[in-house]
Amino acid sequence: MIRIALDAMGGDFAPKEIVKGALEAARELPISIILVGNELKIESELKRYKPLPNISVVHASEVIGMDEPPISSVKNKKDASINVAMDLVKEGKADAVVSAGNTGALMASALFKLGRISGIERPAIATIFPTQKGEVLLLDMGANVDCKPQHMLQFAEMGSLYAERVMHIKKPKVGLLNIGEEPEKGNELTMEAYPLLSAAPINFVGNVEGKDILPGKIDVIVCDGFVGNMILKFAESVSRTVFALLNEELAKSPVAKLGALFLLPVFRNLRKRIDYDELGGAPLLGVAGVCIKAHGRARAKAIKNAIRVAAEAVSEKIVERMSHLGE
To answer: 270: which residues sit within 8 A by CB, 6+ positions away?
Structure first.
């Protein structure tokens, strides 16, 4: 049975929503979940529900907050929940880690305790975006703000493998994010990365522009972490703003409110299609263990789906498969 170490203290709604999501996952999936964190607080939440045999608790006395410096906190707080969860994987007592906590702390802990996959120079945070036709995987989303062409190549190879094995996309199309489609377009990084991706054993389709992200014609889009993080934050704000503006316009007119009643099924379906909670978490690719980062505002549904993604990555032996990329 696949064992998931879940950081029960990470995220804005921990431990309540984390525990709830863990229980939902434990009911639906053939896995065991180890809740890591303050034992008293976790047990207090568990008492609200019927006990499950595939849920256990490991105590951790410390927590790394969302606003704490990642590296120093990971080093100084040895008994932080994310560190204890990572130790479980390192010691072979768990197969994957899931956390909605401090992203930098998750990365630092993974690097310190699990290390990189041999041959992979830089781990990358990959994020799934909903598109008109399905989903697209973008990486790197902020782990590396300064990259070299070789890093971009490895991002492309790891992203292609993840899309194929975990997202179940046959022969995923890989694009290099740029300011134009022509090979000679872009900055020094993208122009030097282009021939490396062209020669790689992946389905590289060339440069893609920002307008190509959401239509769904590309399955994996590669960029450096500086650009990727700005795309991520902008996309999050666009989603919130669109729904906020829609609510404002509906509130202005009784007729609009009436019309909205007839469109409720449409609105619900639209929200579900772009709901981050449905997509699970963002994998940290390139470290020697399965690590999934759920959104800091993740509630139970998002945690459940992040656990599902982690279990699938373990089942597909994604780390073992990526170890061959560095050979």
So the answer is: none
DSSP, res 80: B
- Please tell me the distance from the alpha carbon of residue 100 to that of residue 306, in angstroms, as a whole number: 9
Q: What's the pLDDT tens digit per position in 44-62? A: 999 999 989 999 999 999 9
**Are 69 and 141 contained in the same domain?**
no
Looking at the fold, whether 151 and 272 belong to one and the same domain comes out as yes
pTM over 0.90: no
**Residues 164, 180 within the same domain:** yes
How do residues 267-289 score in pLDDT, each as one tens digit? 666 566 555 656 678 999 999 99
- For the chain, the domain total comes to 2
Specify whether 196 is located in the same domain as 321.
Answer: no
Asked if residue 15 has a cis previous peptide bond (ω within 30° of 0), the answer is: yes
Q: Nearest to residue 312, comparing CAs of 109, 29, 18, 33?
A: 29
Closest to 7 in 3D by CA, of 55, 91, 63? 63
CATH number of residue 271's parent domain = 3.40.718.10
Q: At what angle do helices 149-165 and 188-199 cross, to 10 degrees?
A: 50
